[in-house]
Amino acid sequence: MTTGEANKPRIGGIGRRVRASSWSSRIAVVLLAAILVALGVQAVQDPQQFLSQLLIGVTNGSILALIALGYTLVYGIIELINFAHGDNFMIGSFIGITVLSGTFFGLSFFSPITGDAGTALKVFGVVFALVVAMAACGLLGMTIERVAYKPLRNSPRLAVLITAIGVSFILQNVGIIWKGPAQVPFPDLISNANILGGGIVFRWKDLFVISLTVPLLLALSYFISSTKQGKAMRAVAQDKEAAAMVGINVNRTISITFLLGGILAGASGVMFGLFNGTTVFNVGFVQGLYAFTAAVLGGIGNLTGAVVGGILIGIIAAMSDQYIGVRWTEIMIFSVLILVLVFRPTGLLGDRSAVQGGGEERG
């Protein structure tokens, strides 16, 4: 058999795969277009309701974006999916309610801050809860990296993956011991009243989430792009060995990455509790799964992609809740994810450096 004849089956197989991939992409495009057309029809029929759902989606998506950033930061540095990150978010919400209630494992330290408190006391309580949660979750993130991940840095990926899942279960059980398995209510410190008129719903709670998310995103962007440590993170993300050769402390840089992810998890945990009025021990798994989906949808390994993915997931969930039904929401979220990955396997913004938010694609 000649070389040409031997290559014919291989070439034929490649051709079939290319055609199958082409058809998959076409189907994905058609389905995505159908979804967009359906949303456009709803926007024309009832623009006020559509805009209200859009704002709800942006608000919920902002919280998911902060969580997703923690996933993509860590992945960009050490290519590890930190499955305990969502549970760090849960711990942040528990810290928030602990600070606001003034009790810790049944011991009362000061009077709880309730919805009847004055405006100044409410503002102080929210700010104090945010600061404590961000600091504690940041330190928890660093501790998890040092204790659970650093000793396994040169081990097979499966060992690190199992360890990450194990840490996740440990934190969930800590949550059960701390607050129990039932829902934990947050005090109603932020008004649920509508700011806008004309039938478009945009509440003070929505404004609270967005006005806190935007500065955090800007601060993270500045830190990554303009500070010495941020530049070190970008260097480690590109090439650890080369970064170490020029004097960058790789271990310290990785720890700071986990610190940043934990800070964002703590902030989003408190925001989630105040926005939704409740939290529970397994909220980290659920919201963490959505946030991880957002990171993959936007292109895991890209800061901007994590933000875009989070907001898109929030909008998809809000639109599905209103126009299709709550029980279909998860189906819609993951269906859109699959359709996008079929059309663009690296996510919407490609597989780029997590700590740069742009640049050339790796492959």
Automatic annotation (TrEMBL):
TM ranges: 53-77, 89-111, 123-144, 156-178, 207-224, 254-277, 289-317, 324-343
InterPro entries the UniProt entry points to: ABC_transp_permease, BCAA_transport_permease
Main location, first listed in the record: membrane
Annotated CDD domains: TM_PBP1_LivH_like
Pfam families to which the protein is assigned, alphabetical: BPD_transp_2
GO biological process: D-alanine transmembrane transport; L-alanine transport; L-isoleucine import across plasma membrane
Membrane-related topology note: Multi-pass membrane protein
GO molecular function: L-isoleucine transmembrane transporter activity; L-leucine transmembrane transporter activity; L-phenylalanine transmembrane transporter activity; L-valine transmembrane transporter activity
Subcellular location: Cell membrane
Keywords assigned: Amino-acid transport, Cell inner membrane, Cell membrane, Membrane, Transmembrane, Transmembrane helix, Transport
Keyword Transmembrane helix: yes
This protein's GO CC annotations: plasma membrane
Family label: Belongs to the binding-protein-dependent transport system permease family. LivHM subfamily.
Record protein name field: Branched-chain amino acid ABC transporter permease
Record organism: Rubrobacter radiotolerans
